[in-house]
């Protein structure tokens, strides 16, 4: 159902009122003594090679202008180049919005007003199209085949050319920023290291390896597993020795077999990679070659080790604070169930739950975990995977290595720049091409199914917009006569319902991207941006426009389905009001709420009551971050 200026005014009035409340809350929280550390953490912590930001104005909304007007140099010195790109993107979006608004008001809207198609539709009793006063300033008011349509076409081309030129300049500026970052960056290993994946030869990551180490095999008895693995190895060797099979093997398979022969002769994966890259780049240009090892056995142990280290720090800090204040130190105790911890705990404490001194237990467990890590570490180093990190002595060779094809098959020695260690998803780093391709195919299939599923909520939103079905109900008929109720149902609830329906989508896409085999958290985020944009295009735009255009003229469509093009031509422009309200919901309410991070703030305050030291409470507010995948796609 189309909406008029009154409904739009009430909708944007409600959204603006909520936006003012949200920003007023943020203004209060960022200046309040109890919450300012959470909302302005960079003013209270020292970060290496970063300056502290200046104190922003306490005047409401003035701080927004101060941040947007920050110079590029100041932004880089405070938060770095990545944040500068985001701020540039915000400035770019604001400029495009203002430019489009001004130009459309000057050139397009006056042309729309001068025609009379809306009046003609109102007088035509056979036309089922719903029109409102908003249509008087839209393309709906222009008659078919009118010369005024040339203005819309010319405006689209002109605005597109202007924006394309702006995007070009935007990307050139960001490339220069990246060049400047490389030139001025320290000589860290990341700038000299290339990541090499899909090294041919190692059994790790092959189909048979995944088959023998998968969930099904893990449930089998050890003797059965050993027998299957032994038989697979025997079959593999027999195939290699079969001369008839060797004659029909592809060059890639023969190369793989030659590498496997070297590995069976006693060479390591590191030796193979060294020979290959020393031959190409020269031994004098390579500083170090490190083969990524299978860390699955120690990953969980390491997480427990790190968490325990934090718990020990917090407990010692708590005792120290009591001692410093000359208060009585009551030794804390902890109840443990030894069999769930390890064999050493069972031997010492038995199988029944028992209370022990917390610090003594933490110390004993820390020592045992350190010992277990050292033992498992050596086992992991012996399990080389098909991935390597190669550090060069010059950036030139690193760039060449990370952008070159090292073998005639794109499935061998795939290369890229090495990501930062904190950005790596280590369990995904060793996937081979075949597995990544299979996983990606499966995830895209599920993504398409999800797109199809969301026709249901979009149809429900269209049902909310169409008030004709509610007018038959006696009670609702009287309520719909109230302008505010009608505006609420047609202007606010549909956009809000759609926003709620798709709220979980980014989380689902992130899980999909991780399962696909993305080897860094950055790739997970960029994959989210790409897929979420596709999702919004189909679900929010195509479904909404298509279903909305047909719903407004449903009887005409059922009587004459071949008139679908004419129906959409008339119905699609009428959906503009829905997108106006939906964009208003995102810009004035949804994004400010996300920016407020009220859930994180409340959680940090609740958790802070259980933390007794500065170091433990500091973890709750010092290290915060917003994921770029959510805001950028809007």
Walk me through what this model shows.
The chain has 634 residues and is mainly α. Helix content is 65%, strand content 5%. The chain contains 29 helices and six strands. The longest helix is centred in the N-terminal third of the chain and has 36 residues. The C terminus is likely disordered.
List keywords for this structure.
single chain; mainly alpha; four-stranded antiparallel β-sheet; 6 strands; globular
Strand arrangement within the widest β-sheet reads 2-5-1-6
Identify low-pLDDT runs.
629-634
What structural class is derived from the secondary structure elements? mainly alpha
Give the number of helices: 29
Please report the distance between the alpha carbons of the first and last residues. 25 Å
Give Rg in angstroms: 32 Å
Strand count: 6
Mean pLDDT: 80
Largest sheet: 4 strands, antiparallel
Helix content: 55-70%
Q: What is the overall silhouette?
A: globular
Beta-strand percentage?
5-15%
List the helices and strands and how they pair.
Elements: H1 5-31, H2 36-39, H3 62-68, H4 72-79, H5 81-113, H6 117-123, H7 149-184, E1 193-197, H8 207-212, H9 215-218, H10 222-241, H11 243-247, H12 251-264, H13 269-281, E2 286-293, H14 296-324, E3 333-336, H15 343-349, E4 354-357, H16 358-382, E5 384-392, H17 395-403, E6 414-417, H18 433-453, H19 455-465, H20 474-479, H21 483-501, H22 505-516, H23 521-552, H24 554-559, H25 564-571, H26 576-596, H27 598-608, H28 614-621, H29 629-632
Antiparallel strand pairs: 1-5, 1-6, 2-5, 3-4
Helix pairs in contact: 1-21, 1-26, 4-5, 5-7, 14-16, 18-22, 19-21, 19-23, 21-26, 22-23, 23-25, 27-28
């Amino acid at each position: 159902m189309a909406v008029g200026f009154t409904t739009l005014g009430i909708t944007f009035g409600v959204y603006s009122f909520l936006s003012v409340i949200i920003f007023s809350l943020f203004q209060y929280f960022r200046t309040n003594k109890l919450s300012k550390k959470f909302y302005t953490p960079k003013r209270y912590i020292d970060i290496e090679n970063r300056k502290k930001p200046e104190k922003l104005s306490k005047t409401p909304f003035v701080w927004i202008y101060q941040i947007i007007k920050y110079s590029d140099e100041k932004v880089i010195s405070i938060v770095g180049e990545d944040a500068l790109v985001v701020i540039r993107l915000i400035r770019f979006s604001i400029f495009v919005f203002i430019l489009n608004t001004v130009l459309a008001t000057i050139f397009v809207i006056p042309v729309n007003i001068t025609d009379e198609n809306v009046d003609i539709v109102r007088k035509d009793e056979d036309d089922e199209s719903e029109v409102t006063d908003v249509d008087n300033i839209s393309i709906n008011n222009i008659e078919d085949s009118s010369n005024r349509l040339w203005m819309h076409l010319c405006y689209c081309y002109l605005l597109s050319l202007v924006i394309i030129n702006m995007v070009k300049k935007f990307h050139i500026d960001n490339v220069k920023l990246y060049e400047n970052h490389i030139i001025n960056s320290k000589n860290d290993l990341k700038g000299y290291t290339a990541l090499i994946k899909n090294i041919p030869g190692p059994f790790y990551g092959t189909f048979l390896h995944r088959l023998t180490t998968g969930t099904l095999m893990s449930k089998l008895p050890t003797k059965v597993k050993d027998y299957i693995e032994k038989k697979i190895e025997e079959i593999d060797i027999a195939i290699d020795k079969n001369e008839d099979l060797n004659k029909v093997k592809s060059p890639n398979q023969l190369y793989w077999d030659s590498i496997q022969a070297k590995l069976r002769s006693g060479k390591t994966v590191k030796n193979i990679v060294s020979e290959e890259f020393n031959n190409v780049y020269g031994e004098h240009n390579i500083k170090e070659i490190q083969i990524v090892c299978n860390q699955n056995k120690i990953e969980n142990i390491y997480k427990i080790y790190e968490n325990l280290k934090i718990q020990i720090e917090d407990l010692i800090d708590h005792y120290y604070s009591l001692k410093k204040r000359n208060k009585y130190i009551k030794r804390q105790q902890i109840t443990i169930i030894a069999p769930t911890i390890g064999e050493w705990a069972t031997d010492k404490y038995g199988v029944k739950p028992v209370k022990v001194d917390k610090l003594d237990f933490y110390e004993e467990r820390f020592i045992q975990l350190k010992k277990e890590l050292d033992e498992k570490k050596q086992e992991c180093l012996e399990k080389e995977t098909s991935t390597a990190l190669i550090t060069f002595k010059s950036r030139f060779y690193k760039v060449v290595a990370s952008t070159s094809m090292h073998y005639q098959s794109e499935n061998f020695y795939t290369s890229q720049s090495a990501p930062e260690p904190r950005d790596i998803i280590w369990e995904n780093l060793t996937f081979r091409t075949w597995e990544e391709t299979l996983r990606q195919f499966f995830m895209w299939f599920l993504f398409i199914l999800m797109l199809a599923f969301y026709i249901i909520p979009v149809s429900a939103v269209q049902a909310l917009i169409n008030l004709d079905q509610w007018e038959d109900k006696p009670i609702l008929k009287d309520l719909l006569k109230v302008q505010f109720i009608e505006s609420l149902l047609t202007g606010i609830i549909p956009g809000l319902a759609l926003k709620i329906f798709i709220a979980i989508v980014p989380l689902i896409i992130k899980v999909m991207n991780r399962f696909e085999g993305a080897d860094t958290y950055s790739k997970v985020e960029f994959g989210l941006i790409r897929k979420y944009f596709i999702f919004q295009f189909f679900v929010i735009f195509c479904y909404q426009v298509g279903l909305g255009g047909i719903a407004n003229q449903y009887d005409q469509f059922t009587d004459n389905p071949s008139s679908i093009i004419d129906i959409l031509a008339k119905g699609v422009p009428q959906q503009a009001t829905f997108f106006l309200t939906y964009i208003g919901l995102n810009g004035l309410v949804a994004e400010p709420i996300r920016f407020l991070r009220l859930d994180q703030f409340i959680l940090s305050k609740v958790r802070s009551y259980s933390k007794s030291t500065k170091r433990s409470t500091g973890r709750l507010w010092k290290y915060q971050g917003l994921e770029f995948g959510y805001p950028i796609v809007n």
